[in-house]
Design a protein that fits this description.
About 35% of the residues lie in helices and about 25% in strands. By secondary structure, it is an alpha/beta fold. The protein binds S-adenosyl-L-homocysteine.
C-alpha cells in the first residue's frame, strides 16, 4: 500500500487479497458511503455544485410545482414533504419557504445516510425527521417527494463485451492500485437482446440499487397517493457506454484512485425509472429537460422578480438561470421525470 492509502483503501485491498476481486457495485457503494459520511461535498469550496446550490429558484419552483399538484387534488392535510438525499437541505429550505407562502406546511421527512449532512440539514430544517431509507417513511398520507442528484450516487454494475462474451466488471487490487477487470461471471443472459451483438469493448450499465429504491418509492405512492419529482443527469432507453465518473474539486478524477475521497456517480437510466413506476401502477411523466421544466414553470418571470427586488444581483441571477436552463449547460443533460399516484392530475410543465 502507498503511504497515503486511506483506511477504506486498505480495507478494500485486504478484502480483495482475501476473497478475490469485488463487484464494481460494492466498490462504488463503499466508496460513496465513506465519501458522504465524512464531509459536506457541496458548493464552491467542495467537490461539486448542484442545481439548488446554484440558485434558490430551483427549490422554489420545485416547491410551487408540488403545491400546485397538492392543491389540485384537494389539499389533503395529511400530506408529507419527502426528500431523498437532500445534501445541505438547500432545496428543501427554498421549496418549503415557497410552500409556506401559500399556507402549505407539511411535515418534513429526509432520507439521508450521511451524519455530517444530516447535521447540516438540521440547521436549516430543525423540525425535520430523518430516515435511513424509504421503508421507514410514514405509511399514511400522500408523499410529495423530491430527489435531485440522488439516484446518480447509487451503485451500478457494468458488463463488458469481451472476446468470450459479456463479463461483469470487477475491481481487483494489483501493484498497489485498484483496477477494473473483466474476470467476472458470464452474464450474456442479463444483456438486453438488442444489445447482445454490440462490438467487443462495449459496456452496459445496470443498477439494482436504483431499481429497488425507485420501486420502494413507487409502491408507497401507489398505496398512499402522492407524486415524485426526480431530477438527475441521464439517458433513456437501451444504451452502451461507461458513464461512471469521479469528481474532486470540480475536476474529473480517476474512479479507481483513493476510494471514498471522491464523488462517484453514474448516469441514470430514465427508462428504468419509467418502467418501475408504470409497473407499480403510477403515471409517469417525461422525462423532459431540466431547462424545459424550469422555463415552463416560469423561471424567466422569477428571475425578473428577483432582479427587481435586488438590482445589484442582476448579473448573478441571469447567470444562474442560464446555467440551470441552457442546452449547453445543465438544461438538457439533466432531466426531470415525475411519477404520480392513480387519480392524481398531470403535473405542471409535463
Ligand atoms: N440533493 C442534493 C444533494 C445531492 S448529493 C442537492 O441537489 O444538492 C447526494 C445526496 O444523496 C447526499 O445528500 C448524500 O449523502 C445522499 N445519499 C447518497 N447515497 C445515499 C443513500 N444510499 N441513501 C440515502 N442518501 C444517500
Amino acid at each position: 500500500m502507498p503511504p497515503e492509502a486511506t483506511p477504506l483503501a486498505e480495507r478494500l485491498a485486504g478484502l480483495i487479497a482475501a476473497t478475490g476481486p469485488i463487484s464494481l457495485a460494492q466498490y462504488m457503494a463503499e466508496a460513496n458511503a465513506h465519501y458522504y459520511a465524512s464531509r459536506d461535498p457541496l458548493g464552491a469550496e467542495g467537490d461539486f455544485v448542484t442545481a439548488p446550490e446554484i440558485s434558490q429558484m430551483f427549490g422554489e419552483l420545485a416547491g410551487l410545482w408540488l403545491t400546485d399538484l397538492w392543491t389540485r387534488v384537494g389539499s389533503p392535510q395529511d400530506a408529507h414533504y419527502v426528500e431523498l438525499g437532500p445534501g445541505r437541505g438547500t432545496l428543501a429550505e427554498d421549496a418549503l419557504r415557497a410552500m409556506r407562502a401559500v399556507r402549505f406546511e407539511p411535515p418534513i421527512h429526509l432520507v439521508e445516510t450521511s451524519p455530517v449532512l444530516r447535521q447540516n440539514q438540521a440547521t436549516r430544517l430543525p423540525t425535520a425527521r430523518w430516515h435511513d431509507d424509504i421503508d421507514s417513511l410514514p405509511e399514511t398520507g400522500p408523499l410529495l417527494v423530491v430527489a435531485n442528484e440522488f439516484f446518480d450516487a447509487l451503485p451500478i454494475r457494468q458488463v463488458l463485451k469481451t472476446d468470450k462474451g459479456w463479463r461483469e466488471i470487477m475491481v481487483d487490487h494489483r501493484d498497489d492500485r485498484f483496477v477494473p477487470v473483466s474476470s467476472g461471471p458470464a452474464l450474456d443472459d442479463l444483456v438486453p437482446e438488442p444489445l447482445r451483438d454490440a462490438p467487443e469493448g462495449s459496456i452496459i450499465e445496470t443498477s439494482p440499487a436504483v431499481e429497488s429504491a425507485a420501486r420502494a418509492l413507487a409502491q408507497r405512492i401507489a398505496k398512499q397517493g402522492g407524486a415524485a419529482l426526480i431530477v438527475d443527469y441521464g439517458y433513456e432507453g437501451l444504451a452502451t457506454g461507461d458513464t461512471l465518473q469521479a469528481v474532486s474539486r470540480h475536476e474529473h478524477a480517476d474512479v479507481f484512485a483513493e476510494p471514498g475521497e471522491r464523488d462517484l456517480t453514474a448516469h441514470v437510466n430514465f427508462a428504468v425509472l419509467d418502467a418501475v413506476g408504470r409497473g407499480e401502477g403510477l403515471t409517469v411523466h417525461g422525462p423532459i429537460g431540466q431547462g424545459q421544466w424550469l422555463e415552463s414553470l416560469g423561471i424567466g418571470a422569477r428571475t425578473a422578480a428577483l432582479v427587481k427586488a435586488a438590482p445589484y444581483q442582476q448579473e448573478e441571477l441571469i447567470t444562474a438561470r442560464n446555467r440551470l436552463t441552457r442546452a449547453d449547460e445543465m438544461g438538457t443533460l439533466f432531466k426531470a421525470l415525475a411519477m404520480t399516484g392513480k387519480d392524481w392530475p398531470v403535473p405542471a410543465a409535463f
